[in-house]
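Severity: low
Component: inverse-folding endpoint
Summary: output formatting inconsistent between runs
Steps to reproduce: submit the following structure tokens with default settings.
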């Protein structure tokens, strides 16, 4: 056993010993290094939308065990608002009632065209009845993911176009090189441009007077920005 421990100790000391440099000289690069050009590009554009995410809050008082039927009736009522959209239940919670009923708080969500927003609150009020109260809880004008991605695709294409022009310019300036894309690192951001609540209400009121059938033109918008860190590279010619 003593010999085994000694052997292990010797092995550990051997592994911990510093590696000696090769007497032949320092390690040198194998092959020719690339010439590199690093540049930063930034492009931006507007992401616009003419729809809004609407949430309608519903308070339901139903007999025990009948919530499923009441929920389906609520969705049917919302679909009957005459808006070309799909309503989905996204949140609900239950509270007990002293009278033996179940009280449910339900939130339904849909993406609604801006032209259909002017009378949505009235429709919610008209759909209110004993045991069911409907109110418009929120209206969010943020663009959808699909709308953002469409603008992002366009901005990326602009970056690729500018990179292509840069490569052509480099190859024209350095005829003995052939530059290529080595790496493009994208960073994207969306900056909302919120409209003041009072200003939005004023514009909506003006539109309602100008267009009795439901105004149009009030759209949400975000500024989309893409920053690209671009690495261009070319193999340097061998020394003569």
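Observed output (run 2 of 3):
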């Amino acid at each position: 056993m003593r010999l085994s421990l000694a052997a292990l100790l010797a092995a550990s000391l051997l592994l911990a010993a510093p590696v000696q440099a090769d007497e032949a000289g320092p390690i040198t690069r194998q092959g020719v290094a690339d010439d590199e050009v690093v540049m930063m590009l930034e492009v931006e554009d507007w992401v616009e939308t003419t729809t809004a995410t609407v949430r309608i809050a519903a308070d339901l008082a139903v007999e025990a065990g009948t919530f499923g039927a009441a929920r389906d009736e609520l969705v049917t009522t919302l679909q009957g608002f005459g808006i070309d959209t799909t309503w989905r239940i996204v949140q609900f919670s239950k509270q007990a009632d002293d009278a033996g009923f179940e009280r449910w708080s339900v939130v339904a969500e849909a993406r609604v065209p801006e032209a259909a927003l002017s009378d949505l609150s009235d429709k919610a009020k008209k759909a209110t009845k004993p045991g069911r109260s409907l109110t418009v809880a929120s209206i969010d004008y943020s663009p959808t993911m699909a709308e953002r991605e469409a603008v992002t695709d366009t901005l990326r294409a602009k970056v690729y176009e500018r990179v292509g022009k840069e490569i052509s310019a480099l190859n024209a300036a350095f005829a003995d090189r052939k530059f290529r894309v080595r790496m493009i690192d994208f960073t994207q951001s969306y900056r909302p441009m919120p409209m003041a609540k009072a200003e939005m209400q004023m514009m909506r009121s003006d539109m309602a007077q100008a267009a009795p059938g439901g105004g149009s033109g009030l759209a949400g918008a975000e500024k989309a920005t893409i920053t690209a860190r671009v690495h261009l590279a070319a193999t340097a010619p061998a020394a003569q």
